[in-house]
Write a structure and sequence with these properties.
By secondary structure, the protein is of the alpha/beta class. The chain is built from 10 helices and 13 strands. The chain binds the ligand NCc1[nH]cc(CCC(=O)O)c1CC(=O)O.
């Protein structure tokens, strides 16, 4: 066995910072480690929509391929970016203690969502954030936003956009917190604020990574992602799923919205979760309850329509 593990990471400042956090945690257990940057086509080309590269999960796939090719011992991801289906032979070895799961509204003058002028331009490429913004403020003009956190902040600083929505966890990890940033009351994405290490259980370093796992974060992640897995990724729809602890009860809240934010179906469920199966069961049960609502069929059909329409002549 090598003296220390190699962690694979994307090259963005946030990805590198998160990898440093994993290295610091490993160091606490007496292990050194180093990192290797994996570049993917989605990183190099900032103009082309991600869907052209294979959509959600494209960055994760590049790291998984490098991992399976033996270029490293573990891959570090933001859990929010990790699809439900991992590459065969790989598992999430650990979840670092969760950072903030909140979304922030960043404007040049510290405005809140309600203070934005009519028709203000807000940047976000996330279907969820888009729909949640439009639900609160149907007048807003939402434009897509790609690139790393610094590039996104520049769009506001240069006056190109009136506001952007970013994860508080990312800003905090980069030390880019801004006094004027306003927390949004949104239920956020499954896994937001959680850093994970993906590895092969047959790796000599798997147990070392495993020792970094934070149990309460893992149970939150399992509940949030079990809900996501139930809905399935066959249709791209605005979806939020967020678990929090109230004493020893795990409270999972999820919502599904129409793309324009006009329709929302939301439901909460709590359970005294003690193990992984309990957390997975909570996500599954919440979906069963939401799926039985009369409005759900219409919501799901509406978000499938554009894709089907795309393949018809
Ligand atoms: N898709 C980009 C992404 N993936 C994870 C984070 C933030 C960090 C986290 O959620 O842990 C971000 C940026 C953002 O949403 O502002």
């Amino acid at each position: 066995m090598k003296a220390h593990p190699t962690l694979l990471t994307r090259g963005s400042p946030l990805a590198r910072r998160q990898t440093e956090l994993v290295l610091e945690a490993l160091c606490g257990f007496g292990h050194d480690g180093c990192c290797r940057v994996v570049h993917s086509c989605g990183d190099r080309d900032r103009m082309t929509p991600l869907s052209a590269f294979g959509g959600f999960g494209v960055f994760v796939k590049a790291l998984e391929e490098a991992l399976l090719a033996g270029e490293g011992d573990g891959a570090v991801h933001s859990l929010k970016d990790v699809p439900c289906d991992l590459a065969p032979g790989l598992e999430l070895a650990c979840h670092l203690p969760r950072g903030s799961a909140r979304d922030l509204l960043v404007t040049a003058d510290g405005l809140s969502l309600a203070d934005l002028p009519p028709g203000a331009r807000v940047g976000s490429s996330s279907l969820r954030r888009r729909a949640q913004l439009l639900r609160a403020r149907p007048d807003l003009e939402i434009s897509s936003l790609r690139g790393n956190v610094e590039t996104r902040l520049r769009r506001v600083d240069e006056g190109d956009l009136d506001a952007i929505v970013l994860a508080e966890a990312g800003l905090q990890r980069l030390g880019l917190d801004r006094d004027g940033a306003r927390p949004l009351p949104f239920i956020t994405a499954p896994g937001q604020g959680i850093v994970v290490v993906e590895a092969s259980p047959s790796s000599a370093w798997f147990e070392a990574f495993r020792s970094l796992d934070d149990r309460s974060t893992r149970l939150q992640a399992l509940a949030e992602r079990s809900f996501l897995a139930q809905v399935g990724l066959g249709c791209h729809l605005p979806l939020a799923s967020e678990a929090r602890w109230e004493g020893d009860r795990l409270v999972l809240t999820a919502e599904i919205l129409s793309l324009d934010g006009v329709w929302t179906e939301r439901e909460s469920l709590s359970s005294a979760v003690v193990d992984d199966e309990g957390a997975v069961g909570l996500g599954r049960e919440l979906w069963t309850r939401l799926a039985s609502r009369p409005q759900m069929e219409t919501l799901l059909a509406a978000c499938r329509l554009p894709m089907e329409a795309g393949v018809r002549p």
